[in-house]
Amino acid sequence: MKLKYLILGVLLPVFLGTGCQSLEDTYADYAGDGSIRYLGQCTEVEAVPGWQRIIVSWTNNIDPVISNIKITWSINDVVKDTLLESGITECSIPNLKEDGNYEIAVHSIDENGNESVAAIVYSRPYTEEHEVIRSFTRLITKHFFVGDRLALFFSSWQSGISSATLTYTKVGGEKGMLELDSALVVQKYCLLPERVDPTQPLTLEREGRVENCEDLIVFEPVVFGNDKMYTSDFSTLMETKYGVKEITEDLVQGISHLEVDYSMNSLEDCLNLPSLTKISLGKNRFMEPNEDEEANVWSEFYDLDRTRFVLDVLNEVKGVTVDRYCKHFLPDSILPLPYVTDMGAPELPEFDYLVNDGWELSCTPEDADTTLYDSHLEHLFDGDLTQYWQPETMTSTRSYEIVVDFKEAKTLTGAVVTQKVYAADDFASAALAPGIIRIQVSMDETNWENATYVLENTLGTNRGESTVIHFSEPLEAQYIKFMVDDQLAGSSTYCVSLSEIGLF
Question: Is the model's pTM score more than 0.70?
Fold first, then answer.
């Protein structure tokens, strides 16, 4: 600290000794060949992104020798510039189609070409690749050609939209145009009244603005193709029924009657089925409805509004009708509908069941001690629906493998799995119904194969409900294995129960 004060004490007299000598003259004493003249630098430089451009503004320096302003911009080692008159304070840099942050430098220049120190800013223009532009609403999320009619599904309206127009080709070649606005889009769905040529493209043109951009943006037109897209619900349904991983046109062309039994989001994929004439809802839910209807677990469409639109379109355009069993899928609040027929409760078909004539049964994990607790595994194959299999309740979950040894090879085509029969108000038993079962077969109890197209088969979970599971093909097997998991039986206890498994 003493050293610093000493230096200050030495320098202070030197500066004081200069008297009225100018600071510039003082610099000149140390400059060697003479004074260095620095041009006044531009200040308050700002860069605002626009549509494929950047608007740069600045405050000019009052230095009288400044004759021009030079703007330089660069990205990925490509540098461009422009020269402006000295009085200009704003510049629009156009044609910036490459996405990324541009470095922008503003220089003052004198008549000899000398440049001031650059004032540098960075900005990223809005381009086709900008995530804000890419995420700008396309308004139309899905489209379906139903015969020669066009059904549209909309997303939400965005406040920045100035105009949006869908162009299409009518049957006969005349061009058609649909102006989209908030009143139309808020309805979520639309069926065009004209007959539309499905072989010709649909083109959506949009203009609008995004936040912090003053420019009106003319977005790249969106051209919709004719490729069919399917939801995961429908793909799972097709795999379960037909064993297909990929839905082909040949498959959908051959579907005239579609049976849907378990909850799904909507029926929108039915708009892709050109030969469809009938839909059956809950036809294969073989249950004994409770007197207290609130205790029943009905299948449902999670997006009922979407499904209602689909059914209306299918009926109007193709005359498709709907059979609804029990109270599945369509609540009474939207009924009656002229194309929906209430079918009541379906009856379980009759099957030629195999008879347990000395089968060997085993379960893993097995009962710890049947003298203390017996799950009664034999009840699963005794043909008596009033009796059931139910392991002991535990505080941890278990996965069960139930194996049947027929003692000889059998031909199997399917199984009927029936949930426990219990009183309508027995909510504890209701919680034990498994919703999934896995089935495998074997000839040697070593090599197993799935009996169905899918590993997991859905079970109806109502009181005493029977689920018919058809195998992928007739199978020869000496052993069959059923796998189910524990259900949450209480706040921290687990168990599972089934009444019967019939084999045919």
Answer: yes
Phi, psi of 391 (to 5 degrees): -65, 170
Closest by CA position to 116, among listed 67, 77, 73:
67
136-224 CATH choice from 3.30.70, 3.20.20, 2.60.40, 3.40.50 = 2.60.40
Q: CA-CA distance, 153 to 151, in Å (whole number)?
A: 7
Q: What is the tens place of the pLDDT at every residue in 279-329? A: 999 999 998 766 666 678 899 999 999 999 999 999 999 999 999 999 999
d(CA 327, CA 333): 11
User: b/e per residue, 220-245, with b = 16+ CB within 10 A?
Assistant: eeeebeeeeebeebbebbbebeeeee
- Contacts of 435 by beta carbon, 8 Å cutoff, 6+ apart: 458, 459, 461
Does 365 sit behind a cis peptide bond, omega within 30 degrees of 0 on the bond before it?
A: yes
Question: What is the Cα–Cα distance from 330 to 287, expressed in whole angstroms?
Answer: 17
| Helix (H) or strand (E) run with residue 313 in it | helix 304-318
Q: Which helix (H) or strand (E) holds 46?
A: strand 43-50
Architecture of domain 43-123: Sandwich (2.60)
